[in-house]
Structure formats: C-alpha cells, structure tokens
# Entry
Amino acid sequence: MNLLLDEVAVAASRLAEAGVESPRTDAELIAAHVHGVSRGALHTVPDAAFDPRYWDDVARRASREPLQHITGRAFFRYLELEVGPGVFVPRQETEVMTGWAIDALGEMDVAEPVVADLGTGSGAIALAIAQEVPGARVHAVEADPLARQWAERNIARCAEAAPHTAGRIVLHSGDFAGALADLDGTVDLVITNPPYIPVGSWVPPEVGEYDPATALWAGRDGLDAIRVVERVARRLLRAGGLVAVEHGAPQGGAVYWVFAEEHGWRGTRNHTDLSGRDRFVTAEWQDDRT
Ligand SMILES: C[S@@+](CC[C@H](N)C(=O)[O-])C[C@H]1O[C@@H](n2cnc3c(N)ncnc32)[C@H](O)[C@@H]1O
# Structure
C-alpha cells in the first residue's frame, strides 16, 4: 500500500456514507484526476506526491456533485467529452441506443446518411455517429443556450482529435418541435434522448441539482417531449427512415404505442439497456398513406 491508496480507502467509505452509488470507483477516479495518472497507476504515485486537494474534490462528491462535473469529463463510446454546469451528463444507457443507430445506418446502404439528433446536449450522440459512421451528416438541435455552448466546444475538440468528423455536424439552435424544416421528408434517421421524467418524480441529487431542468422533466406522464418527437420524426423522415427514442424504464409500453401503426409507423420495437430494462423504442416510417 502507499499513502494515496490509504487515502482512497478512507475516501471510499466517506462517499459510501454520503450515499454515493459507486464509492470506491469514484474515490479512485477522483484520485486519478487530481494526480494526473490513470486509475490503474494509482499505486505508483509516491507518498511525497500526494496532493491534499484530493480531499476538496472528495468533499464535492460527498455533497453529491456528479463525478463528471468534478473531473470535467464524460466518456461516451469512443469519445471524451467536456461537461459541467448547464449540460446533461451523457449516460451509459444512451450508448446502447447510439450503437443501435450506428449499426442501422451501416446497414442502410446510403453513402451519406442524414441524421437528426433532437436535444443534443453535450453533442454526445451526434459526435459518436459522426465519428463512427463514415459519411454521415448529423444535424444536432438544442434549445438551451448553455448546453449549446458545451456542444460547440465538444464538436470543435472532436474535429481536432478526429478530423474526419470536421464539418459533418451542424448545430442548430431552437426548439426541436419546428426544427430542420428544410430537411422535411429527407432524413434517414432521427435519434433522441429527450426529457422523459414525470414531473414530481424523485431523482437523486446528482440529477435533480446538477442536470438542467430542461433535460429532465416532461409533463405528468413524462411523455410530453416524446409525443412531440413522434410528430417531428414523421415530418423529417423519408419513407423507410428510422427513429430511435430513449425513455425511462417503466415507459416502454407507453412509448411503443406512441409509434403506432395507425400513425404510419411499422416494425416498432422495444429495446433494453445493459441492465435488461426497457430503454428505447425504434420504428420505421412507412409513409404509404400519402
Ligand atoms: C436528456 S438530455 C440529452 C442530451 C444528449 N442528447 C445526451 O443524450 O446526453 C435532453 C436535451 O434536450 C434538450 N431539449 C429539451 N427539450 C427540447 C426542445 N423542445 N427542443 C430542443 N432541445 C430540447 C435539453 O436542453 C437537453 O440538452
């Protein structure tokens, strides 16, 4: 053992007492961040190099500030994104839906598929698609000016780190309800992780106090934004185009029926996340009623 690992063990029990869900992991990741090493190299930090500022960051986490706000970084698929106050921290669940979309775009046999990411936040979904789907053109829509600043920053950073993404993401400001009218009937895939929490639900402090309210709440049943997304997707998609919509675990049945056949959808499917809970719905726009 070395001093840092001793301190990490104490920090982990403090975080556990504070109700943090993954106390040991967070204690280690904060230590790695403060000491500028990878988590796997914590044991190599000499005792003399222990930085007491570690305890400031542990105190922030114990007050339930999200780990990603403390480190300033969130990892999403193959991306390292900048996050902080004013933007929703991208989640693992959304990686699964984004992976589904990336596979679906690969199977489409369209050289330069057009994608709309509604409510882009940090830009996570849009950037992952631009990075992993060669030729994709991604239109990312965001209403919240603060969130948009984070997306702008991440799009610029990603263009430096992965130059093949440069110029393939267009960030649009405004409400997605009326967005991208010039693309009506031409989009290959609409994807979104919209707000979907029913107003009045309990959420952990990391969410309620730090994720922006515009990213979370969506009316009494949590489906207000998803109903808007269904109408927007109907307008944007070409015949045969696909939609992927994330939702809360208990909402799978309700969201399935939002993308009903009588509205022009076919192949509507529920999908689960890595813990096996309903997490997103996909459907194909058939548009054979026009
Ligand atoms: C749950 S967050 C998802 C952010 C990002 N796509 C992700 O998965 O990490 C939802 C985002 O949608 C944005 N948003 C909510 N309602 C919107 C609307 N009507 N028009 C445009 N953006 C909206 C919020 O500001 C927020 O950034």
